[in-house]
């Protein structure tokens, strides 16, 4: 009983976010667990690991196919960032709060995709603001860019920024951002391209909020790259090196050698992978790491032991042979 009362007391004492249109009396009533100093430290640390959060009922319901996480995985690989986790979650406040807090604490660089549109189910900004005890603030520069760059959609030819209408309120929701007044604006809001008004909103120093539209997601992440490169383990941005081998042998036949090889090269930071290709005549073996010179020296050995050859693209030497076992 006493434990439950204590838990209830802690819940009631929890601070809540405040919003631009509310009075200051509705602000934080207790010291936040998430401080500006913590966010500042996260925003400057070396980027070794990453996490990706795909937000959207439409993805979980099968209406939309998520391509952003696959693109982000390739993006991280090209920069030498170790992508540790991808999660797909619903447009649900509690899930967004829990996932963002957890990933922000666990990884150096986190992106979210989806849920920042004008409709009622676009709750990413509000949920992340709540997760980190921040207000939602109308960002004036983002609003100015929106007015200048956005084009009226079909059916909105008579839209006016000067009239207080439901359509105007819906548009404003897309530039009401989680915002910490104790941090520099440039550390919280980035415009990735001159022809885009959609901002990259950075929260708690490492949560980067992106739209779910693939072409915008990709363009904005590409525009962010120059800011990330100086913080990488390899500031030259060379990324990770991958060597592909095509083998006609079933996985069961090469498993012993690959196990021995993996143990031998682990201390060099090299991972050995084996991937069956169902319905194809050849399977794939990979070496992934940063020591290109050492990995290249292993090529003749691997080719010999898997009775295959190095390829540049998986499947480039496929034929019509039979299935291989997994």
TrEMBL record:
Transmembrane segments: none annotated. Residues 314-326 have a biased composition (Acidic residues). SMART domains: MoCF_biosynth (SM00852). Residues 51-231 form the MoaB/Mog domain. InterPro entries: MoaB/Mog-like_dom_sf (IPR036425), MoaB/Mog_dom (IPR001453). It comes from the Eukaryota. Residues 306-326 are annotated as: Disordered. GO terms for biological process: flavin-containing compound metabolic process. One of its GO terms (molecular function) is FAD diphosphatase activity. This is MoaB/Mog domain-containing protein. It comes from Meristemomyces frigidus. The lineage of its organism: Eukaryota, Fungi, Dikarya, Ascomycota, Pezizomycotina.
């Amino acid at each position: 009983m006493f434990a439950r009362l204590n838990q209830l007391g802690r819940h009631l004492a929890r601070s809540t976010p405040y919003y631009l249109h509310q009075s200051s009396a509705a602000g934080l009533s207790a010291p936040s667990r998430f401080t500006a100093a913590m966010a500042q430290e996260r925003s400057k640390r070396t980027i070794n690991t990453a996490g990706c959060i795909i937000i959207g009922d439409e993805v979980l319901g099968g209406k939309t196919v998520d391509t952003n996480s696959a693109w982000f995985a390739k993006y991280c690989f090209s920069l030498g960032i170790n992508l540790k986790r991808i999660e797909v979650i619903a447009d649900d406040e509690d899930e967004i709060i829990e996932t963002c807090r957890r990933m922000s604490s666990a990884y150096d660089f986190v992106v979210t995709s989806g849920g920042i549109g004008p409709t009622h189910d676009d709750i990413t900004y509000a949920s992340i603001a709540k997760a980190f005890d921040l207000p939602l603030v109308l960002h004036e520069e983002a609003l100015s860019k929106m007015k200048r760059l956005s084009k009226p959609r079909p059916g909105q030819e008579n839209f006016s920024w000067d009239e207080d209408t439901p359509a105007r309120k819906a548009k404003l929701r897309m530039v009401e951002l989680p915002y910490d007044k104790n941090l520099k604006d440039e550390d919280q809001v980035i415009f990735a391209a001159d022809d885009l008004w959609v901002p990259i909103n950075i929260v708690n120093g490492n949560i980067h909020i992106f739209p779910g539209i693939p072409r915008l997601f990709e363009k904005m992440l590409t525009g962010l790259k120059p800011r990330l490169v100086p913080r990488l383990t390899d500031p030259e941005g060379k990324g990770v090196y991958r060597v592909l081998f095509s083998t006609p042998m079933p996985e069961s036949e090469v498993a012993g050698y690959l196990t021995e090889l993996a143990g031998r090269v682990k201390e060099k930071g090299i991972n050995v992978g084996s991937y069956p290709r169902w319905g194809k005549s050849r399977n794939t073996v990979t070496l992934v790491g940063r020591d290109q010179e050492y990995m290249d020296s292993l090529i003749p050995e691997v080719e010999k032991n898997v009775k295959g050859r190095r390829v540049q693209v998986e499947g480039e030497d496929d034929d019509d042979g039979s299935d291989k076992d997994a």
